[in-house]
Amino acid sequence: MKEGDIKFAKLLVLVNGLVPLALLVWDQSHNRLGANPQNFLILTTGMMALIFLILTLAVTPLRKIFGLNWLIQLRRMLGLYAFFYACLHFLCFYSLDRAFNFSSTIQEIIARKYIWFGMTALLVMVPLAVTSTNGMIKRLGGKRWRALHRLAYVAAICGVIHYYMQVKADVRLPLVFAAVLAILLGYRILEYLRSRKPKAAAVPAK
Ligand code: HEM
Question: Of 120, 75, 96, 77, whose CA–CA distance to 24 is shortest?
Answer without folding.
Answer: 96
